[in-house]
Please model this.
Amino acid sequence: MMQSSEAPVEAVLRDELAHGDVVIGTIGPVLGHLLANHDHSLFSDEIVSRVRGMVWDVARQLLVAKAEQDTSPDPHGVAERQCEGLTQSLLTDARLVSHCHALAMESQLSARLEKRSAIDPVLSPLLQALIASEDGATAATAMAALAAQARFVQSQRRMELPIGELPADLFDAVLAKWIQLADEGERASVERAVQSFRRDYSESASRIGLLSRLVTGMGPGARAALSVGHSGVALFLSAIASSSRFDRDLAVVATNDKQLARLALSLRAAGLKPREVEEQFLHLHPDVSLPEGFDLLRADRAAAMLGASGRSSVA
Model:
């Protein structure tokens, strides 16, 4: 009988990765169930509250824009009265809910590492170095990213999500859903509001867009962003997504304690040495030890295992 050439550590990580995939598949349905329950006193979990707050804020922005198109004397009051219904409709969008879930997780992680490792949630050493870059374009992008990250921290505290911060595919999907939901009598004002949102939208100017541009612009130097203590949480997550070629929301979820194999494999596949991967785990999961034999796992094998998983996004 032919024996498998797979190393024991690979078998352990492959099993954990498969289990992690199953867990990711349950995120949408479980969140959907919790968010649909009106008695939120039973579900006081901070993540659930943040997700619902962000979706509510997106609905509010849409309705304010429509009321302004209708020249309402009190657009914010109109939006407040209509917001619950639109919020419930938007909560059925699994991609939007998953994205808000990832943002809430990122915010929690930033707060946790600020307390545990004194990692500033806004200005990291790497971002500070990029701001001081002699390349004017890099410095300008880094300054814009700094401002965007500061706004993100404030928005998360208020459980808000500016619609212009949505990734392009989600931005389009939310607006399309809104048009679809509109009654015949309000369709014209909704479409005018949609046009105004589209005129103002620029994915590359969003926080995630700016972080992605910084990581891409670093070229081979982007490896430095894979040190969370040096780069800060926001750039670290964007660097994982870029190096692993999967959605940034999945990079966020990979930092969860149910996704340890995905995180370890992603960092190893990106070229970090086993000792460097262990250093990241000391920040992110200080009570977790990498499996025996991880130091023998090659980067190409880690990449192959991630590829075999077939998962590149959360939703």
Q: What stands out?
A: The two ends are 40 Å apart (CA to CA). The CA atoms of residues 4 and 252 lie 33 Å apart. Residues 8-309 form one domain. DSSP finds 14 helices and no strands in the chain.
